Structure formats: structure tokens, C-alpha cells
Amino acid sequence: MPSAGREQTGPAWGTFLELEPPAEGPLHARLTRALRTAVTSGRLAAGSTLPASRVLAADLRCSRWVVTEAYAQLVAEGYFEARGGSATRVRARTGGSVRGGAREDGDRWTPRYDLLPGVPDLRAFPRKRWADMVRAATTELTWDELGYPDAAGLPRLRRQLAAYLARGRGARVEPGQLVVCAGTLDAVMRLCRSLRAAGHTHVAVEDPGWTQLRLTVAAAGLTPVPIPVDEHGLRVDLLREAGGVRAVIVAPAHQFPTGVVLAPTRRAELADWAREMDGLVMEDDYDAEFRYDRHPVGALQGVAPEHVALLGSLSKTLSPAVRLGWIAAPERWTDALTARDTGGTPPPVIDQDAFTRFVSSGSYDRHLRASRLRYKRRRDHLLRELEARLPGQPVGGAAAGFHLLLPLADCPAGAVVEEAARADVRLASLDDYRAAPAATDTPTASTLVVGYGNLTDQAVPGAVQRLTHAIERVRAQSTARRHVGT
After folding, report:
1. Percentage of residues in the chain with pLDDT exceeding 70?
2. How far apart, in Å, do the first and last CA atoms of the chain sit?
3. Which residues have a Cβ under 8 Å from the Cβ of 376 and sit 6 or more positions away?
4. What mean pLDDT do residues 94-108 have?
5. Is 371 helix (H, G, I), strand (E, B) or coil?
6. Which whole-number Å values give the CA distances from 97 to 110, 176, 208, 463, in the listed order?
7. Three-state secondary structure call for residue 226
8. pLDDT of 246 above 50
9. What per-residue string of b and e applies to 406-431 under the rule 16 or more CB within 10 Å gives b?
10. Residue 102: beta bridge partners?
11. pTM of the predicted model over 0.85
């Protein structure tokens, strides 16, 4: 049997898969777990191509649907990547910039200054308090609760979440409408599978927007339709013009990566569109808890609960490692979200119970308050350093979340990202999140996305110094090229 070593980038068709016995669940779920284990154990190396679904289905003597569902789930989880016209691959780790995250030798790149957006302060994870909750859950869960979990999630967690979303996000949701899942991408995958089963063929997504959302929509068998975002949020007028679209993914409280809040008039227009189309708005409640200029904007779900599914997770508030999220869905979608051919694997019951205790004890609210103060203090420090080293530099997206936008009028942002990587600084450009590069005359055509969530307070001056030097070097190179061209 061929070995799947760490340096392998060719076909991985001979990889040994350990499928669990039928008693452990449906075949597509067992195949998903086997493939996931093959990746995490190193048997499937980064960059390896997977066999075509029909080939693997023939080898396993199962239907092709089983394989496509397993591949789609692992695309949503970030283990695989699927691109039109090419084979599905194990997600590659390439070196030296935001586009990868690892060196060419396979070792993960841990930059000295990590300015990637979307990463919370991992050093502030409440280890002791969380460990106490896990210990209590392990001790006090009943014997029957240690069996296979309810597909919709632990009932007492759903009750706690319903109360929390009502008081903190202005949502209108009953515990029976909540489905506990493994995070936002898992939620989107479940909803897209349900939409596909209901006859939908297209889903609109924000542009620029989180790239993984577009990939997840495609992995679910639907066509993502990019809709531009401007300074007021999603262009609802262009959404209306998009043919065949009756579902959209939007982050109205704090759009990623532009940071804009969906304007009140557009919130109303979006709700009206959903009612007129009898459609579904998937509301990504991204960074809603971290607003510094005013109270957080209430969830759109509270305005149109019959047409909005509110999606939330702990990836930004606690840590991506917790892998726990939720869907507050209209009643007509809840059964489909937990159906055998739609739902993913629920998070571990012990983690669900631990988070229930974390919320009910008030620890979650205290953690969020402390996080808001910490991020605001760090943001203010970062803004002062930027003003000192780049006087007059415009800054956007500072009102919420934990990343900033730096529009650069006189040099390409992508080149700055590469130059900064050589100085051991990791960050992104706005084009990394677009469906297609912006026209050069667009105001935000060359814009850096600078995260500060996982940056220590002490590291801010050094990070800004290296970033400034990278910008200055690229500006000098751009000026020299212009002079040569004239």
C-alpha cells in the first residue's frame, strides 16, 4: 500500500481508510470521520489529490452520494479544498504569506507578528474556568446523556442560548428553533443542503466576504452569486436583480472584511426582499459582540424571524478550537437541519454541557465584557502607533471587531503583504476576500486588512514598525518603476 508521507502532493488514491462498523452511524458520516483521521494523522498529506467521487464510490461499493457528502463536509471544515474544473485536494499549506500559513518544508509558519484578521486573543481563553465547567460536566452528566447526542443539541443548552440571544441580540427564537452545530461553516453547509433539497440552485454572498463561505456554498452543490458591498453594506438593489436567487448570506452587524454595518434602510429592504421572494437570509452574526462606538446592532432575525436564520459561534468570542455554534432557524427549516442526509455531527455533549454552565454562571457575559475592553484598548494603541509612523494614513473599520482597513493610494497591497511576510509579519489584503480583483480605479482597490485580535499589547509597536517599513519599501519600488516607465 503506498505511503502518504508529509511531502506527498500527488494522488492519494491508495490511502488506507479505517471505516467504523455500521453501528457507528450512516456510511457518509463514517467515511467523513475516516477521511478526517487520515488527514490529521498524516496519511493524507497536504496538497494530495483525492480520487474522483465515482472512483472512491466504486472502491467502497457504495453510492456516489456517500462520497460527495463526505467530501463536501470536509471542504466546509477546511480539511479539503474544491475548485471548479480540478480534483478535490487536501488543503495545501504553502509558505511565506497570508495565502498559505506554512513554510514549504511543511512546518507551520508561526510569524513573530500575526496580523491576520478573524483570530481572537487566544492567550485570553479562560482555561481554568472552562476546565472547571468541563470537569463539572464530566462528573454530573447522566448516564443516558453520555450516549449519542440529540441531533439538535443538548436541550438545556438550547434553552440557555434562546435566552441569551433574546437579551443580548434582540432575537425572537424558541429553544425548539435552535440547532447546535460545529460552527458557522457547519451551519452554512447544513442550510445549503436543506436549500438544495428544497429546489434552490443559487445563494448570494457578500463581495468582498469570507472566502470559506463561497467555497462552502459550492461544496454543498449550489452556485455562489457575489453581490457587492459598499459603505452602507450589501447592495440589496443588486440582490433583487440577481436571477434565480432566493437565499443570501449576510453579516449585517459587522461585515467581514469591510467592517461596515448594514444601513437601517437596507436592513428593511433585505427583510422585504426575503418576504417577497419567500426566501431565506442566513445572518452571520460576525463580531456582533465587539462594538466600541455604540451598543451592538440588534439581529436582523428579530425583525423577520420567519425568513432569517441567525448563525453564531464561539470561534471569535472564545476560540476556534471549541468548535461549537448554533442556528436559530425559522420553524419550517429546523427538521431539515437535523435530518440524516443534511445534518453534520453535533459537537461533543461534554462541550455542550460545559458551555451551558459557562453561560448560566454568568462567565460568558463576564468574558465578553473583558474582551471588549481588551480589544478597545489594543485598537486605540494600534491607532496611535499608526498615526505616529504613518501620519495622515486613512483607517477604516475601527468601530467594531478586531481588525482595521488601511487603504493605500500609492502602492499595491498585495506587494506589501509579501514584503511584510519577509519581515515575519502576516496580514492580508482586501483582494484576498474578493470574488474577483477590484478595478484599479476603485477607492478600496489597494487595501490592507490588519488584524489585532491575537496580537499582544507589547507587540503592537514592533508590528507597526515592520509594517511601516514594508509599506515604505513597496512605495519606493513603485515610484522607481513609474520613473522608469516615463
Report:
1. 87
2. 61
3. 292
4. 42
5. helix
6. 11, 44, 19, 15
7. strand
8. yes
9. bbbeebbbbbbbbbbbebebbbbbbb
10. 108
11. no
